[in-house]
Amino acid sequence: MLSLSKKMYHENEAFKILDEDKGQMEKLDPKDEFVNQLLNHVLGKPILYTIENWAPLIPFTEVDKIYVVWLAHQHFYHLVIDLVKCEVWVIDSLANSSDEDKRLARYEGTLCLRRILPALLQLSGFYDVRKDLKPVNREWDLRFANKEQCFLQTDNASCGPFSCKMMEVLVSRRALPNITEENMKFIRRGIAERIFSFSKTAPKECI
C-alpha cells in the first residue's frame, strides 16, 4: 500500500504536475462536500440524500429548474430548463462565435426540445404532482445567457472542461474564480488527476 505522500507523488509524476501548478489547481478545483457526493454517486458508493447537498438525485417534480449538458455538432453547452417560467436558457461557451450558421445548427435540437416539453411534462404526470403549476400548450420561450454570464472559449477544443466547471457553478450555486482560457491547462489537469485518483477504488463496472 502506498503512503499518501508516495501516491500523490506518482500521480503528480504521471500528469507532470509541478508544485506551483498544484496550488493553482486547488484554487480552481476546490474539494468540497458537493463534489465528494458527486464522486461517490459515480463510483457507486452510498450518498447522503438531502436537498441541500445532492440536488441531482431529487425527482424532477420537486425542483423548479433542470440543468442539462447538451451535445450538438461535437460541442457541449448547457441548458437550464425552468419548469416554473416555461423557459429554456442556453449557456454556451461559444456564444461569442461569429459563425451564425454553426450557431443555428448547434441550437436545432434545443428548438425541438422547447416544442415537445409541454407534451412530455403532461404525459409524465408532472402537473398531477405539481399542483402549483399549470400546463401550457405552446412552445416554451428560448433565451440565451449574456456573454458576461458564462465562461467563454476562444478555441474549438475546450468546451468539455468548460462544461464541467459550468455545471459545478450551476448545481452548487457558487461562483468559481478564474475559469478562463489561460487557466484551462490547470482545469484539465485537475479533472484528469481526480479521475486517476478515484479510479483506484472505483468498482470495475464504473471504469
UniProtKB/TrEMBL annotation:
The answer on whether this UniProt entry bears the keyword Hydrolase reads: yes
InterPro entries for this protein: Papain-like_cys_pep_sf, Peptidase_C48_C
Q: Which GO terms describe its molecular function?
A: peptidase activity
Enumerate the spans annotated as Ubiquitin-like protease family profile domain.
59-195
One of the GO biological process terms: proteolysis
Which key words tag this protein in UniProt? Hydrolase, Protease
Q: Which domain of life is it from?
A: Eukaryota
Q: What would be one Pfam family of this protein?
A: Peptidase_C48
Q: Which family does it belong to?
A: Belongs to the peptidase C48 family.
Question: What name appears for this protein in its UniProt entry?
Answer: Ubiquitin-like protease family profile domain-containing protein
Q: Which organism is it from?
A: Castilleja foliolosa
